[in-house]
Amino acid sequence: xxxxxxxxxxxxxxxxxxxxxxxxxxxxxxxxxxxxxxxxxxxxxxxxxxxxxxxxxxxxxxxxxxxxxxxxxxxxxxxxxxxxxxxxxxxxxxxxxxxxxxxxxxxxxxxxxxxxxxxxxxxxxxxxxxxxxxxxxxxxxxxxxxxxxxxxxxxxxxxxxxxxxxxxxxxxxxxxxxxxxxxxxxxxxxxxxxxxxxxxxxxxxxxxxxxxxxxxxxxxxxxxxxxxxxxxxxxxxxxxxxxxxxxxxxxxxxxxxxxxxxxxxxxxxxxxxxxxxxxxxxxxxxxxxxxxxxxxxxxxxxxxxxxxxxxxxxxxxxxxxxxxxxxxxxxxxxxxxxxxxxxxxxxxxxxxxxxxxxxxxxxxxxxxxxxxxxxxxxxxxxxxxxxxxxxxxxxxxxxxxxxxxxxxxxxxxxxxxxxxxxxxxxxxxxxxxxxxxxxxxxxxxxxxxxxxxxxxxxxxxxxxxxxxxxxxxxxxxxxxxxxxxx
Length: 486
Ligand SMILES: NC(=O)C1=CN([C@@H]2O[C@H](COP(=O)(O)OP(=O)(O)OC[C@H]3O[C@@H](n4cnc5c(N)ncnc54)[C@H](O)[C@@H]3O)[C@@H](O)[C@H]2O)[C@@H](O)CC1
Ligand SMILES: Nc1ncnc2c1ncn2[C@@H]1O[C@H](COP(=O)(O)OP(=O)(O)O)[C@@H](O)[C@H]1O
Ligand SMILES: [K+]
Prior knowledge:
K(+) binds at residues 67, 126, 158. By secondary structure, the chain is an alpha/beta fold. The protein folds into 2 domains: 16-216, Rossmann fold; 224-485, Ribokinase (UDP-N-acetylmuramoyl-L-alanine:D-glutamate ligase), CATH 3.40.1190.20. The chain has 19 helices and 18 strands. It has helices spanning 20-29, 34-52, 66-80, 97-104, 115-120, 139-147, 208-212, 237-240, 252-264, 279-283, 295-300, 315-327, 336-342, 359-365, 373-384, 419-432, 437-458, 465-470, 472-485, and strands spanning 16-17, 58-62, 85-89, 110-111, 123-127, 151-154, 176-180, 198-202, 218-220, 242-246, 269-273, 290-292, 306-309, 331-334, 354-355, 387-390, 396-398, 404-406. The strands form 2 sheets. Strands 1-9-18-17-16-15-14-13-10-11-12 form an 11-stranded mixed β-sheet, sandwiched between helices. A 7-stranded parallel β-sheet has the order 4-3-2-5-6-7-8. Strand 2, helix 3 (66-80) and strand 3 form a beta-alpha-beta unit. Helix 2 (34-52) packs across helix 3 (66-80), helix 9 (252-264) crosses helix 16 and helix 16 packs across helix 17. The chain starts with 15 loop residues before the first strand and ends with a helix. The mean pLDDT is 95. Bound molecules: ligand NAX, adenosine-5'-diphosphate and potassium ion.
């Protein structure tokens, strides 16, 4: 097993997401060039606006820090290019010396910072607060931005906390967020995800030495983060990987969905283990699926390394199965019933490779307290020493070594029962193919999201979990093509 992404990568990965603290470290390393960087940031923001809008009446609202400085640079550039641009200031005296310097170059009148003015313009550029936002949004800023007809954010919409995506006040949605160097985790995390609009990230010629000064630990999930196993001429089914699941009595559909997903995405062999009474029912259906009727015998087969425990199992049964799997040191993905069994006693999951809770299951395992989803997932992965796939519209995949991927490659089409079982099957297949648990989980979440999008296109936006399964082979192929292009 190899790690394609390490915490100490020599140069900043294109999909790295930078927290405000990491940005500060980078900016400190680039302190000699900081004025040039601000000019580059404003210049690039102006270019992006020109590329995406026809001239319209713009009000650039500038804050006291460097976010405001970026705004002043872009205002000057657009004005010089003949756009009708005005500037308003939250504070007449900026706190950043660079922003003061940029303000000195602006010789048009300053518009009063009042909601009535915001209303008069076609578009307000929110250059009020970015990475330096460190306390609740002032009421006047809330009122001002709310009054604007349309908004674009520089860096982040003011009021969004850059690392966690939480709101520090009433935040107004933007139609675009223009950020620099790399986006921030907040751009892809709920609730900020919903209000950042289109994310445009600009290169501002950050010196290589400064890029090297940061060691990011969060990435935006995409095929550049992982390497899928490929097919080889001497492959055989065992080499490709065997996935085993335990199926219960009442919800055989869940195990069937996981099994079908594992097969469709490329596992060499998938077997459901159940009891002698239930096996005949499980055997009706997919011809290529193997049904076993004895767990203890199945566990003795050394080729059966990867096991899925939980989909369709009541919690007590899941617990009994999990104990046996752990005893045999299998590579386990715990989901559904297995997670309910461990609620209140986390030690029951010690030794599993991956857990896949949705928000409700996660909260029962790891009470959030005052932690955000991101921080809770990171500490949960460390505490349990397992990969945590915290599912949702912004699935967070956290590894025990501190690496985190945030996935936005999904769609609301997945919000239907059974898609979680599908995801578990995909993780199982990729794990059985030899991928590292974190990378297998990241790849599975992306391929699952891609399959959801393809199924939604085919079925008018409303696919079933079964439909998502049918697109997994094609969606793996899309991931492979993207991997080749990197
Ligand atoms: N590496 C990069 O990405 C670069 C970023 N730049 C810009 O620099 C920005 C960060 O600049 P700063 O660190 O100066 O931070 P900000 O401009 O976001 O704000 C900092 C100032 O606002 C005050 N403040 C923070 N929260 C407040 C609140 N709720 N109410 C009232 N006052 C509040 C702080 O005390 C400080 O004076 C980025 O967002 C980006 O726009 C560029 O200028 C250059 C390079
Ligand atoms: N609004 C959404 N946007 C993107 N993905 C979603 C959304 N809602 C659900 N999903 C995804 O669908 C899956 C649902 O899993 P889960 O809640 O466990 O369902 P089930 O247990 O019924 O299979 C997860 O992978 C989740 O990330
Ligand atoms: K902003």
